[in-house]
Design brief:
The complex is a heterodimer. Chain A is mostly helical. Chain A contains 14 helices and four strands. Chain A has one domain. In chain A, the strands form two sheets. In chain A, strands 1-2 form a two-stranded antiparallel ribbon. Chain A has a two-stranded antiparallel ribbon with strand order 3-4. Chain B has a two-stranded antiparallel ribbon with strand order 1-2. The longest helix of chain B has about 40 residues. Chain B has two domains: about 190 residues; about 180 residues, no CATH class. Chain B is mainly alpha-helical. Classes of the chains: A mainly alpha, B mainly alpha. Chains A and B meet through helix 2, helix 3, helix 4, helix 5 and strand 2 of A and helix 2, helix 3, helix 13 and strand 10 of B.
Chain lengths: ~325, ~475
Amino acid sequence: MTIDLVPIWTLILGLGVFFYVMLDGFDLGVGILFGFAPDTPSRNLIMNSIAPILDGNETWLVLGGVGLLAAFPLAFAIIIPAVYFPIAIMLLALVFRGVAFEFRYRDAEHKTFWDHGFSYGSTIATFAQGLVLGAFIQGFQVDGRHFAGSSFDCFTPFAVVTGLALVFGYALLGAGWLILKTEGELQAFARRAGRYALCGVIVATVAVSIWTPLADADIAQRWFAWPHPLYLAPVPLLTALFALIEWRALSGRYGEAIPFIAALVMFLLCYLGIAISLWPYIVPRSYTLWEAASSPGTQAFLLIGTLTLLPVILLYTGWSYWVFRGKVRHDIGYH
Amino acid sequence: MMLDPLLLSRLQFVWVIAWHILLPAFTVGVASYIAVLEGLYFFTKREAYFRISTFWIRIFSVSFGMGVVSGIIMPFQFGTNWSRYSDATANVLSPLFAYEGLTAFFLEAAFLGVLLFGRSLVPRWMHFFAALMVATGTLLSSFWILAANSWMQTPAGYELINGRFFPKDWSQIIFNPSFPYRLGHTVVGFYVTTAFVVIGVAAWLLRRNRAVTEARSMLSTTLWLLLALVPLQILLGDMHGLNTLEYQPTKLAAIEARWDTGSRVPLTLFALPDQAHETNHLAIDVPVLGSLILTHDPNGTIRGLKEWPRDQRPPVAIPFFAFRIMVGIGLIMLAVVLIGNFMRIGGRLYESRAFLKCCELVAPLGFVAVLAGWTTTEVGRQPWLVYGLLRTSDSVSPSLTGTDVALSFAGYIIAYLIMFPAGGLLMARIIRKGPDGSPAQSPVVGGRPGEPIHALPGSPREDRP
């Protein structure tokens, strides 16, 4: 009798996606806010605040994609073709963003063009990720082991709302990061931008939270059938509490790290909410985690390496953030 | 609808992987070259090695960044366009891709910062060690990706249940029959490609009388190295060919445009293969040489394509010509290397402007050879994605329409036509500055860095009390 590795892989993949959202989320968010920055010196400063960690953050996307393929190949084979265009748009936007990032330093004559490229690239990539999220929550038309719908099915009003939600959400994380890393006028800009983003997040989250159970009876059942509200109620209540904390933190009530941390907690709670809604499905309403899992031999073979290498990777990531702690200043350039 | 999602998906994959493969073809080689230079600097303490290494590290940083960005696109292709391939092979292949990501990617990422900008921040031995680790990372990357590719060419260690592959023996899966030869042939091919870029750049500098000490050292060391690498590559290619003859006879028959089975077969130097009529036009044959080269025996038998049904034959013209381009370039390279080393006698190597010009002209040929070799092996595997077991036409995502793929393909075309010329331009600028240029840490002018400084560990430390 072999050990069931599915829960372990669910946890690893869940953590992987959360790490990606946390890490690339704030630097995409900084890219979104970058377009609204008041002047060139602040734009340079904003860029320097994310420069050292940008490349490392995107490697989580590769690990997320390959991890899904390895742990739940059936989900990969159904979901990825179903979100064909959002994935392509996201990849193209990330490519353009990466090129713009390199070139704004080296091609000073066209700096405005590259600056626009960076902020549009960040915004479009984020919106595309939100479309993927919306399509995922709504579920896919499945026939046997294939996605049976059209590549345009994912462009629904609901997905547009989740797309906007993610743009506001990443912008909020980005604002939290900038408050942590900057001071003076630029920090004041980040606090203002953060409040706008928080309003957007609240509106979009409430919309999604009402829309989802209305559209899906199973999800409504999961949240509202007695006695579920008794132990699920803390999720929305805590989210509301942290939204309040976030608002006060953005206004400067607490420490400079609180806006970023409270935004992360809000993300974690929304993430938990989605997981509660969809459990135990990985292809919503079609395949459970266990049905979509790869063979035990595959999972075991990869687990050996993952459990040895992942902690090292996490330690290294943590260490590189530690090295770059503190405020960015005008006179230090690095990336 | 005229647009065929299968054909367009294949073209899209060709487009994204052909551009992508150019980067590892260069970064794998240059990472090892940098490790060698750092080693030479560490042990001999000659400043020239330090300047040469710093110069190539700058070029490496741009190509590595482009490799990461274009590499992110690759795994998603399997899902978006080849979902049935993913479903069928994931149990066997996905851990290989995942191990590539885990080991190689992060080994590179962890030591890259130290290599690029840690020169003044870490002890010398640690900088050398970081260079070694980055080089190891690029080689491990090649190891896993080529293991996966080789498994698709010569599958082993699996069992097939309801059209899906399941792992039975991981060491057989990884060390499948064609893997050692493909790994050796590809990595040495990458080394040779890089080495030709290095002598091209050195020749360019010498013709302009710039950084003469550094350029001479680059040209001389690399020509010695190539004197070993190019013949080794030809030997490895020959061994790889014997392996293909044994495990992928249809590919070999297509490469040689051999329609009929026979012994004492000729070597066809040139022909216009005619797939429909199963014959060659305008063939130039050398008697018996085909059997001699392919089987190492003048009486050796080569199976012709007519032994297989038409729907199991690869297209012949593409592998036939691609292979000849690769071999032709290999022979040109051998000639350049032999002439160059011969010219050392009497010290004419650095003086002959004709030879230096020739080095500049052949500098990009390695990339062409890599693409040609890759085309030979991938088109030669057709019509299969997993040789003999899973057809390419049965692998494409069933939900895609021709219009879907045409739209995404157009997007990838535009993106790559921006990214690659832009990256090329950056590298050309660095080369024009030469190894006599400024150090890696550009001074910060007027509140913004002149160019991004890939500092990692500890650079702000200087500003902290």
